[in-house]
């Protein structure tokens, strides 16, 4: 099976009120899905892994909205599928809509990903 590039989509800033600790917790939750995707033989991708350095190096010339959403849209041109994690997120919902428009698989549970390896209890 060819490895898939799977975008992990879920809340990042949603529901945080801009609190850096809550934003970091959301990113950590997204990143928790990376290992099982890798174990399944695929390549995990999170839009913020690309967007945050771009935003940081814009030196204030760009807003989060100008970088985060467009980065995910551009990444989806290269991704093979999306894993949508639970939680309210306009950006993640947009990712799902784009993936569906492009005919890409959208999964809502890690266990749905081809090659998923069940973790011991």
Keywords:
121 residues, alpha/beta, Rossmann fold, 5 helices, globular, single chain
Based on CA atoms alone, the radius of gyration comes out at 14 Å
| CATH topology description | Rossmann fold
Helix content: 40-55%
Domain unit count:
1
Tell me the series of helices and strands, N- to C-terminal. EHHEHHEHE
Major sheet: size, sense and barrel closure? Answer: 4 strands, parallel
- Which architecture name does CATH use? 3-Layer(aba) Sandwich
Quote the beta fraction: 5-15%
Write down the CATH class.
Alpha Beta
Counting H and I runs of at least 4 residues, what is the number of helices?
A: 5
Query: Which descriptor suits the 3D outline?
Result: globular
Mean pLDDT: 96
> How many beta-strand elements?
4
Poorly predicted tracts of residues: none
